[in-house]
Specification:
The chain has 283 residues and is an alpha/beta fold. The chain has two domains: 85 residues, Rossmann fold (3-Layer(aba) Sandwich); 124 residues, NAD(P)-binding Rossmann-like Domain (Rossmann fold), CATH 3.40.50.720. 42% of the residues lie in helices and 16% in strands. The protein has ten helices and eleven strands. Helix 6 crosses helix 7. The N and C termini lie far apart (48 Å). It binds NADP nicotinamide-adenine-dinucleotide phosphate (NAP). Pfam families: THF_DHG_CYH, THF_DHG_CYH_C.
Length: 283
């Protein structure tokens, strides 16, 4: 038997604290608000946007969406972000990534006020994580992995953690966050040799490759804790992770399902960041 690490329990736990904070803000006539900037009509962006709006509405957080054409100019983007930075009613700014190629991603990332940067795009917030300061905004997916491990009491101190991903959204910030929790971290990627021999010796394996069912039982031991961050679609059109769940379930200590795993925590943390940002901006 493997323990199944569902995201829902973690999300519910986080929402309890959040609800109290929202109630306290309401008593002062303050309602947290997020501005969402979506460029183009990509179906996964629209689905993500719907899920954020639904979750925000349920918790009493206001949303406003700016839908921009794919051809939006750099100046239009920067002007909009500047306007939102100055708007005292907006507590968080979320820009969906990746951007169209003609836009300068780095410039846009740094233009978002560090105080409203709920998805940790501004290098100032990333820098804090690399300095070991975990009290600011963190990339929600990486933070969701840490929250899952903490909630299920999976020991990090001294544990060997292997992360298969080196992106700025997942692998790099996550490695620094785990390091701050005294884990020993190895980062793997597409050029890593003998991947399965590395993962097999780890206590915890985090995968965010983006390839449906690429990883089977050969990569793990009976003591492995497996965190699957990826959201892929399999040959039958069903959502799945990087892990071949049916082959791995029962042969490891614990495993996250996809869907109903890390993804459920990511959106909750995004909303938590809006609320936390709102509190800090109104002290
Ligand atoms: P990405 O930038 O494409 O990163 C993929 C990583 O996997 C890269 O580091 C890549 O190595 C590595 N990789 C590719 N093929 C490999 C192989 N055969 N063996 C070992 N490593 C390999 O993607 P991302 O934006 O970080 O997202 C990764 C996944 O996370 C996606 O499936 C996405 O849907 C999911 N995601 C989930 C959430 C959530 O809330 N659960 C949120 C965001 C993203 P190189 O660096 O060498 O190319």
């Amino acid at each position: 038997m493997s323990e199944i690490l569902y995201g829902k329990n973690v999300a519910l736990n986080l929402k309890e604290d959040m609800k109290k904070n929202i109630e306290n803000l309401k008593k002062k006539n303050i309602i947290p608000k997020v501005a969402i900037i979506r460029i183009g009509e990509k179906s996964d962006d629209i689905a993500y946007e719907k899920s954020i709006i639904k979750n925000c509405t349920n918790l009493g957080v206001n949303t406003e969406t700016y839908k921009l054409e794919k051809s939006v100019s750099q100046n239009e983007m920067l002007n909009l972000i500047d306007k939102l930075n100055k708007d005292t009613e907006v507590n968080g700014i979320l820009v969906f990534r990746p951007f169209p190629k003609h836009l300068d991603q780095e410039l846009i990332n740094s233009s978002i006020s560090a105080k409203k940067d709920i998805d940790c795009m501004n290098p100032l917030n990333l820098e804090k994580i690399f300095e070991g300061k975990l009290d600011g905004f963190m990339p929600c997916t990486a933070e969701a992995v840490v929250e899952m491990l903490k909630y299920y009491n999976i020991n990090l101190e001294g544990s060997n953690v292997v992360i298969i991903n080196r992106s700025m959204v997942v692998g790099k910030p996550l490695s620094m966050m785990l390091l701050s929790h005294n884990a020993t971290v190895t980062i793997c990627h597409s050029k890593t040799k003998k991947l399965s021999s590395i993962t097999k010796n780890a206590d915890i394996v985090v995968t965010a490759v983006g390839k449906a069912k690429m990883i089977d039982e050969e990569y793990f031991s009976k003591d492995s804790v497996v965190i699957d961050v990826s959201i892929n679609v399999d040959d039958n059109g069903k959502l799945c992770g990087d892990i071949d769940y049916d082959s791995v379930y029962g042969k490891v200590k614990a495993i996250t399902p996809v869907p109903r795993g890390v993804g459920s925590v990511t959106t909750t943390l995004l909303i938590k960041n809006i609320v936390d940002g709102c509190i800090k901006q109104n002290i």
